[in-house]
Amino acid sequence: MISRRLIRIKVLQVLYAYSKKNEGYSSIVAEKELFHSIDKFYDLYLLLLMLITEMGNLENARIQLRRNKNIKSIDDQFPSTMLIDNKLIKLVESNQHLSSLSQERKLNWKMHPDLLKKIYNDFIETDLYKNYIKEEKTTFEDDKQFLSNFYSEFLSENLAFIDFLEEENIYWNDDCGFAIIMILKTIEGFKPDGNDKKLLPLFKNDDDKDFTKKILRSAIVNREEYLKIIEKHVENWDTERIAQLDLLILQLAIAELLEFSSIPIKVTLDEFIEISKYYSTERSKVFINGLLDKIIKQFESEGRLNKKGRGLIG
User: Fold this and answer.
1) What does the CA dihedral 12, 185, 49, 75 come to, rounded to 10 degrees?
2) Cα–Cα separations (whole angstroms), residue 170 to 10, 25, 29, 109, 173
């Protein structure tokens, strides 16, 4: 399921686009774009899971070609079938939930045969692959670990795949790491008899979906109020001179502090400082940390931080 970290990032991305659009770009359009982006993230998750079965299909095709050679080596006559015999790949291939979702969303790799071949050819040159096919026998846990390594060690660094992400969807390059984490959780959850295993949902629960809507709406509706709060604590610095992304990060942090009583202050602070490291300037981390610290103290003195439950932690 999509993480709260990625939800925050996607809201930030949509807010940035919203800030650059003309007056006709409404909060309703922004919300539609946000959920479209999140939905495309789920497509990436499903495509990634389907990719390993494509690797198995290409392996099977290569084995057949080797066996049909006129002049065969010993390896051609008796090639390793470890990859196509991988127990987890077989479970993924026969998974009814994946099959249903891929058909419903019209997802497949048919339009990218050259990319698949490139990824496959790169993969079979790796030590990960070469060491695996040397094994005479593997356990189900061995097969799971091999697939986990395929995604986390090989695919995440494969240049052909990275280029595909950038060309296919403007958000997927940022999404890939989060999607691979979902893949690893999915792999970990498979059992030897798990061909009917349900895949991870898009949202963990309704709370996460509500969080997505509410933080975006709050940041848009209360924009002027939040900017005044920021301006009050910026010494000798016009808000117009602050980096646009810094302003948006601060607005989102304020929205989360004020609107979500169940989220601890420290969690909000840590999350947005971490996001600033990747999406804003080099100095943003220190600037945002210092400004949010002042804003939090103001809110506390005014009694505006009504944290409850988990929100009281830290």
Assistant:
1) 140
2) 12, 19, 18, 19, 7
pTM over cut 0.85: yes
Residue extents of the structural domains in the chain: 4-189, 222-312
pLDDT > 80? residue 102:
yes
222-312: CATH topology: N-utilizing Substance Protein B Homolog; Chain A (1.10.940)
DSSP string over 2-35: --HHHHHHHHHHHHHHHHHS-TT--HHHHHHHHH
Looking at 139-189, list the stretches that DSSP marks H as alpha helix, in order from N- to C-terminal side. 140-149, 159-168, 172-189
- Predicted confidence at residue 70, as pLDDT, reads 64
Distances (CA, A) of 64 to 60, 72, 81, 165: 6, 12, 11, 31
Could you tell me the pLDDT band of residue 90, with boundaries at 50, 70 and 90?
very high
200-215 b/e with 16+ CB inside 10 Å = b? bebbeeeebbebbeeb
Q: Report the alpha-carbon distance of residue 55 to residue 124 in Å, rounded.
A: 10
Q: What is the pLDDT of residues 226-242, one digit of tens each?
A: 999 999 988 755 556 67
List the helix and strand counts (H, then E) for the chain: 15, 0
The encoded tokens of residue 244 equal 């646009």
Cα separation of 209 and 217, whole Å? 13
Dist CA 141 CA 204 (whole Å): 26
